[in-house]
Specification:
By secondary structure, the protein is α/β, with parallel strands linked by helices. The protein has two domains: 31-152 and 289-360, Rossmann fold (3-Layer(aba) Sandwich); 155-281, Response regulator (Rossmann fold). It has 13 helices and 14 strands. The chain has helices spanning 11-23, 27-33, 49-65, 86-99, 111-123, 155-167, 181-196, 215-224, 235-247, 267-270, 290-303, 309-327, 335-344; strands at residues 36-42, 69-70, 73-81, 104-106, 127-130, 147-149, 172-178, 200-207, 228-232, 256-259, 278-281, 355-356, 362-372, 375-386. The strands form two sheets. Strands 7, 8, 9, 10, 11, 12, 13 and 14 form an eight-stranded mixed β-sheet that branches. A six-stranded mixed β-sheet has the order 2-3-1-4-5-6, with helices on both faces. Bound molecules: benzoic acid. Benzoic acid is lined by residues 109-111, 132-135, 154, 182, 234, 261. Benzoic acid binds at residues 109-111, 132-135, 154, 182, 234, 261.
């Protein structure tokens, strides 16, 4: 073994020096000087790749606005492509926590992957922030002091769309989604509000994630002739679905509704087919607040991209952690202090300020948006300060 360290000092001298520093309480200074370690477990391939990139961009934008530091600590990132594959999630999250020793686990987009990550984080008492995945369980039965979300529950925007569809006079709806937690829970949320208001979901159709063979379903919708269709799709699959819906001529006769993931970040790819679509979400183009204006200007300049809901959720994940870490003076070991400050934070988000529910989920406005060109323009706020019901959370 080389007897000299990278400082050029003999190793024996270094060890002696280190021991005397330890007895003088210097380890705090050493820990404080080291960068805070952030694990970004997000998709960088597959149908959700662009969503993962936007979350990463948003997170880094906030850190860069703080001079590359959080609470006086430099930031080191450990990025892993989760491939939106739940079967690989436990191993990948374990590697970030055990091998890379991350102080904070950030992830992910896909609900099934996030559920597996949350279990690993909980078993190892690792702080975790979910910057997208809406799995209701994360702020329901799996809620935990160390688990936070800066995005939404699958129930939230879908429930709001059920209310909107009923108010628009529709009586029968057919639904279509990928068969996994996010899709199923979005349908459940929609159905809850729609049927409470007297509507009826006549048929629920699903296909495996991330399949995009929509033709048989479009044929069936045309035959059933419901008043409207409600879907959950996002990313590349969403653009394909909307184009296929228009190519089948259904956009002329049967209104299509969805949580805003259908049209966020996808309108350019949809072209004409997306025009006029109505969706509900906790973010929109044209919100009238200074934070959003500044956020969008910097995002567009830095990444040469139009910001979307995923970028906002990543930005807010960094903001929320900053609030916690600052309260702890940058000391990642003071987890109780970090958690308390995060619970009490008011996040100055581009979507509008929000606080967290007892289950650590944003209490937030849900906007109704209309697709105009490449914008999802806000046209109404059907529900203000909507809290997820957090069913099954005992915290
Ligand atoms: C989810 O799996 O929870 C999800 C994925 C993409 C957009 C929204 C939700």
């Amino acid at each position: 073994m080389n007897a000299f360290t990278t400082t050029g000092l003999p190793r024996a001298l270094c060890v002696t020096g280190l021991l005397s520093m330890l007895s003088l309480g210097a380890p705090i200074a050493l820990a404080q000087d080291a960068p805070v370690r952030i694990g970004l477990m997000l998709p960088s391939t597959g149908t959700y790749a662009a969503l993962g990139a936007a979350i990463t961009n948003g997170f880094k934008q906030y850190v860069d606005e703080q001079g590359g530091m959080l609470a006086g600590r430099k930031v080191e990132y450990f990025a892993v492509d989760d491939e939106s594959d739940p079967a690989k999630a436990t191993e990948k999250a374990t590697r970030l926590i055990k091998r890379e020793r991350v102080d904070l686990l950030v992830g992910t987009v896909h609900s099934g992957v996030a559920l597996a990550m949350a279990r690993v984080a909980q078993n190892t008492k690792t702080l975790m922030i979910v910057p997208n995945a809406g799995a209701d369980e994360l702020t329901g039965p799996l809620c935990a002091p160390t688990l936070f979300r800066t995005s939404f529950s699958n129930w939230q925007p879908a429930y709001a769309m059920g209310k909107v569809a009923a108010e628009r006079g529709h009586k029968t709806v057919v639904t279509l989604t990928w068969k996994y937690a996010a899709g199923q829970q979005a349908i459940d949320g929609f159905k809850e509000a729609f049927e409470q208001a007297g509507g009826k979901v006549a048929k629920e159709m699903t296909l495996p994630f991330p399949n995009v063979e929509f033709q048989p379903f479009l044929t069936e919708i045309a035959a059933l002739k419901p008043d409207a269709v409600f879907v959950f799709f996002a990313g590349g699959g969403a653009a394909k679905f909307v184009k296929d819906y228009a190519a089948a001529g259904l956009n002329k006769s049967i209104p299509l509704y969805a949580p805003g993931f259908l049209t966020d970040g996808t309108l350019e790819a949809m072209g004409e087919a997306g025009e006029g679509l109505l969706t509900t979400l906790h973010y929109a183009d044209g919100l009238d607040n200074d934070k959003d204006v500044a956020f969008r200007r910097t995002y567009a300049q830095t990444y040469k991209l139009k910001p979307d809901v995923y970028a906002v959720q990543g930005y807010d994940a960094a903001q929320l952690y900053h609030a916690g870490l600052s309260a702890a003076g940058g000391d990642v070991r003071k987890q109780d202090v970090i958690i308390k400050a995060m619970e009490n934070a008011t996040v100055d988000s581009p979507r509008g300020r929000f606080t967290l529910s007892k289950a650590h989920n944003p209490v937030q406005n849900i906007y109704l948006r209309e697709a105009r060109g490449v914008d999802n323009k806000v046209i109404a706020t059907p529900i203000e300060a909507l809290a997820d019901p957090a069913r099954g959370c005992n915290m």
